[in-house]
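Possible race condition, two jobs.
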Amino acid sequence: MARSRPSAPGGAPAAGRDRRWLALVIHLTFFLLLGAALVRYVQRHGAALPVLALAGALALLYGFGPALGRLPATGPPAAVGAPPDAVRRPSARHLLWLGVLVVVWAALVALAPSFSWCAVPLFYTALRTLPPPAAYGLVAFFTGFVVLAQLRLAARFDLDLVVGPPAVAALALAVFTSMDRQSARQAVLIHDLARTHRELAATERRAGTLAERQRLAVEIHDSLAQGLSSQQMLLQAADRLWDADPRQARAHVRAATSIAERSLAEARRFVHDLAPADLAEGGGLEAALQRLASRESTAERSVHCRVDDAVGAPALPGHVQSALLRIAQGALANVREHSGASRAALTLSHLGDQVRLDIADNGRGFDTAASHGPWQHARGHGLPAIRARVRQVGGALTVESAPGDGTVVSVSVPLHPASAKADTP
């Protein structure tokens, strides 16, 4: 009977097939030896009823063994070098079955010593059923009984009969112990591999959760937060101008209302599928950039958008269009809030196997070598958010600026990911 082993994905099916195959070979060997011994006895001594009855009982008992089921699982060994199943605990029915089997075999061998060869398959039955000390003791009993039976059967003393059975028993013990220890080591490795797989999956889930949080933070910053910031600025300007210039103040209020409508659409789209609302209105990225430039143009600042419609240029994937639009939104938000520019320009162009987006302004600029600047302000995402989006689509980012000379942000995204480049400082 085969013992149960700890299972793990990938290793359990193969180990189960090996156990079944080995058990089948041992069972066939037992019945083949039992049948050969019975035929030999009948040919030499005739059909003696006690021998026939004991042989039939032994065959029935041995065949009944698999019906008892596997031994209770004891779990994997504590370490690779630990003895296999050192705490094997057979049930009472297994012990009763094995005891009756040994008694019937001993009685049969006492009557007909030629049946002693059936002890070899019984070695493995004992080793697979009992704890190691008890199993080794039962194997020693089998071996001694076989030696006595063979000596009684022989006409004279033969040294081979004394040496042969112990040598066979030692070989069987060595083979079984080696296989069992190897199986135990494999069980430990499979157990460790399954645990490592679970830990890796948990780590990947945590990393995915953190990445999703970062993505959501950038999405909120590039949509809702920017809209709310624009509304705040316009309403503050309207409040200052309400008495001095009511007409201009109402214009600011109307602009804030328009931005609020856009923010509401963004919020609904954000909840639905996190796609930019401008892209959902149709026309692709080019039309979305035109609408963005139109909204960002005010009396204080004009935003011009130019799209280089290259003939035969392939359509951009949806995630690339979304990323480029968010980058343009984030860049123009920084222009509006920090640059003090009176003009800004968006340029979308197709250059061979790349698409390029440039955002330029004539604002105050900043020192790109500084750790903080108008594009890297502490209270928002700024340039880090743009850089993160560029990395997500495998593109390259270039920022050119100097104090008093404005700023140019260039993003190039390869149409084929294999040609992606690193960020350029």
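Job #2 (started ~2 s after job #1):
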Amino acid sequence: MKFISQACAAALLSLAPLVAASCDYVGGNYYCSETDAVIYQNVGYSGSYQDVTSMDESSCSCSQESVSFEGSMSPLNEELSVHFRGPLELLQFGVYYPSSGNSLKKREDCDVATRHHDHKRDVAVAIVHVTSTMYVDGNGDPVASTNPSATAIYTTSSTLAPASTTTSATADDEASTSVSSSAAASSEGSSSSASVSSGSSASTSSSSASTSSTSSSGTGSGWNRVSYYTPGSANNLTFMNHQGGTAGSGTWSSCFGNSISYCAADGVSGAGSPQALDQVTVPSNKEYMIFSGVKCSDTSSGSCGYYRDDIPAYHGFGGDTKMFVFEFSMPHDDSSSYNGDMPAIWMLNAKIPRTLQYGNSDCSCWGTGCGELDLFEILSSGSEKLITHLHDGQGDNGNSQGGGGTQDYFERPTSGTLKAAVIFDGSDQTLHVVKVDGDFSSTLSASTVNKWLKESASVANLS
């Protein structure tokens, strides 16, 4: 589904020796260093995408109109749905927002608890700086877009991969690490990525990272949990899948196939009403998704825009600043089917599944860049390396396969579970995907969230 332009491919080839020196090429994808966190910087831009306005069953066609957006985190500040593909067992999921009436604080002003830890932990972090499209001349040197010899190449990210370092971060003792510059591409998998990191020296890349904003996602009185799931219990969220027309919800047509539907407790079947997922391991190539518990008919929460007729339509999770937490396992299975043993967790602009997630590209906004964020994705069958990548038009000349990513990876939790937080910080345009520990209680203090950020950011000298 993701493509690499010829110009991008040429750039990747020119950097191949750098990749080969520090990364492994497996199953069509590069994998570099294991990481505990990925921080996306400079997220959000001004652009537009084609939004669906109608779906015509008689002609099997869809109409679209242009929708413009701008600002911090855009278009990922729009409502998002959260998607899961097996083999996967979900143990916890939650959504948090900052407590109302509190402004975001600078990391250096945070509670002292965020600066002093009495434990040690191996931490590695990858930094992805999402940039605008770069133009080069015939020699590969940067030029203005108006230059007659200019060619657009999608050098969309600069990736820093500090070595895993045992740290005990305090105000007086920040961790220091070595930093390596890498370049990589992936051309396989349902959500594979094409990214080029800086070909300059590590010191140049490090300088770019160190000049970023240092504001923190923690607020003065913390974060409130608005939606939460544990097996058998779902509070203010709705499980769905793609079984429309089979079990009392959603619809089916020869034009557009099965719509979304309520998901049964087994995670695989459809249902006629909302159900909480049981403690189940969903098998390979089976998917479900999570929306909020608020129906689109509740206009007090804003408009969902156009969505397919006769579906259970719910709002997603919007906002510049928000946090998602997960606890999950991804055990191996022996499936040889399409997407066999390739689990994934990702986010989509919630408009996409409410129209057509798979099928005619004119029937969703996905192809024109309304937003996808791959959080934890296996790119080849049986792999134990989870990749993250942002897909929208930023940095890729309007191509939805752009954005940025890293070939550093999280270790797949095949036994036991992985806990993680995904933190959108609209105040400084950063997006953090971070392994965490501790409980996901109904409220989280600013010091707790800032500790999660601090443990990773300090390794890259961002604190």
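Residues 6-460 form one domain.
Logs attached separately.
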